[in-house]
Specification:
Strand content: 5-15%
Largest sheet: 5 strands, parallel
Strand order of the largest sheet: 2-3-4-1-5
Helix content: 40-55%
Distance between the termini: 72 Å
Number of helices: 11
Structural class: alpha/beta
Number of strands: 5
Oligomer: single chain
Length: 281
């Protein structure tokens, strides 16, 4: 083996470039046959190594994001949900809402694809280099409550504010006490205009007082969550039950969700709710 080639191998080992090392002999044979030039071979080696490293980065970031089962936009059946504007979702996939620190609300009955879309947008964010964290509302308030009891609430909120995009799934599926609602408000307030969020819910905003056990807390939450917001309402049948819809009793079939709400405000702040705790302002 030529000494220069041996030194090149050692350099690749020292630089921790296993893919380039693996491809080196193949590229040398291509150079010897005149199929590629030296610069083309070098570019190919670096491209292979970069691809491997990017794949590892994405894999690690997806694990840290706790997205669970990976969903993609290409796998979403837009034809099954005709009420959903595909172009609007693809526009969100450009991720400008993350740099603008906006909140995306995905509202609709169970099974209509809210979590799928939220995870898919999270995957797009990870691929683009943004940090992402995914959790259900129940898991978030449980962790905040535990941190409060242990005297580490500030640290837990700081941790949940690190991600560029926080995805909160399943708002409205399980009851939340007013105390837990207040803890969630503290998190939302800490991220307000500092970090983007995606929220999924099967309940309209008018029901959030019931969801969070306190209309004052709910109003304070909406004050921040609708200030810089994109609201996507999905109306339709359950995607998961589409093959067995005839087996579901008619009394249990979800009616078309009524998710009426005032359009999100882009400028100015809504007035504070009367009777709200000044510390929540």
């Amino acid at each position: 083996m030529p000494p220069t080639l041996e030194r090149l191998r050692r350099h690749l080992v020292g630089l921790r470039m296993p893919r380039a090392l693996e491809m080196l002999d193949h590229m040398m044979r291509q150079i010897e046959r005149g199929e590629v030039g030296a610069l083309e071979a070098l570019e190919a080696l670096l491209a292979e190594e970069l691809t491997l490293r990017e794949s590892r980065r994405i894999k690690a970031a997806l694990q840290m994001a706790r997205l669970g089962t990976i969903k993609t936009l290409s796998a979403f059946d837009f034809a099954f949900q005709p009420s959903l504007d595909r172009h609007r979702i693809l526009a969100l996939a450009q991720l400008d809402f993350i740099t603008r620190h906006e909140v995306v609300h995905l509202l609709g009955p169970p099974g209509t694809g809210k979590s799928h879309l939220a995870i898919a947008l999270g995957v797009e964010a990870v691929r683009a280099g943004h940090s992402v964290y995914f959790a259900t509302l129940a898991d978030i308030v449980a962790s905040l409550g535990r941190a409060e009891r242990e005297g580490s609430l500030r640290e837990r909120i700081r941790f949940l504010c690190r991600a560029s995009l926080l995805i909160v799934d399943e708002i409205g599926y399980l009851p939340i006490s007013s105390g837990s609602g207040n803890l969630f408000f503290q998190l939302v307030n800490a991220r307000y205009e500092r970090g983007a969020m995606i929220l999924t819910s099967n309940r309209g905003f008018a029901e959030w007082g019931e969801v969070f056990g306190d209309p004052v807390v709910a109003t304070a939450l909406l004050d921040r969550l609708l200030h810089h917001a994109v609201v996507v309402s999905i109306e339709g049948s359950s995607y998961r039950l589409r093959q067995h819809a005839d087996l579901v009793p008619e009394s249990l079939r979800p009616a078309a969700a009524t998710l009426a709400q005032a359009p999100p405000r882009r400028r100015g702040r809504p007035p504070k709710p009367r009777g709200a705790d000044p510390s929540n302002g």
